Amino acid sequence: MMRLPLFDFRAPRTLEEAARILDGEGTQAMPLAGGTDLLPNMKRRQQVPKTLMSLRYIEELSHIRMEHSGSRLGACVTLADIATDMRFRKGLTALAQAASLVATPHIRNMATLGGNLCLDTRCNYYDQNYEWRKAIDFCLKKDGDTCWVAPGSPKCMAVSSTDTAPALIALGARVRLVSRTGEREVLLADLYNNDGLDYIKRKPNEILAEVLVDSRHGWKNTYWKLRRRGSFDFPVLSVAAAARISESGVIEDARIVIGSAASRPLVAVDAATFLVGRALNAESIAEAAVLAARIAKPLDNTDFDMSWRKKVTGEFVTCALRELRGDDVRSERESFMRTRSL
Fold this sequence. Notes:
Uridine Diphospho-n-acetylenolpyruvylglucosamine Reductase, domain 3, 5-stranded antiparallel β-sheet, globular
């Protein structure tokens, strides 16, 4: 049985108190929300903070405010709250879909939006118990000096596996980061580094307090996820797509985001730019899918063959854009979402 290491526990009641604790403890402390990722990592000795600071009792982190001008979501809103609240299906569909596809109902009841956005990167060589990792002399991400996915690489190639980040990036979301010295807003797309070790730009003394999404009136959006089992598994590929479509059917603006194909969500700028000014017909969708798949370069560090995952990227983009067009793609979605074996 894997057990948690010893740690001190703090339970602040306000955001200001939490910020003071993080500032005082420095890198030895970590915020704890649902704990669905952090606690298993601690059992495997991947993360070993001396102090855990619970965010559970800070009421201001659990709000959902959805207004005509936009939405403000506290970082401790659970994924179950998002998945089951029908308001998210009207304008924030991709986020609702992403939240509903995370893990199992039990985990979604505990897991939080902020926690999923800050999710640790994953890799077949990293997500093992301590003894397994010790047997291979550890890896670059923790305790070693070699990335076993790409031994010649100077950086860690662990994969971003957050579901909600691609969806929210497609929606143009921002996050509010709070520390003892002040706060700042960051475009969510700019929060991540393409490095499995140094994967997030949130500073150790900052708390991701809130997610902000401006009104998406006139936009359609969707999220597609690939995994072996129909539940529980992390994504090994995801696609989020959003578009503002005129009454005549012409794309006025678009965003396409590829998840779980690198150490950060990848924004398919060329594909989205290509669509602007065009109708979503078979030709434009096919070209956009080619452009989007071009940036996806999955490696052999998650489930499924990496060349097949790259191929599916184009198919997912095609299906997502067809869904935005109004096609009934339920059969395609079901075929990809259920168990796959190669």
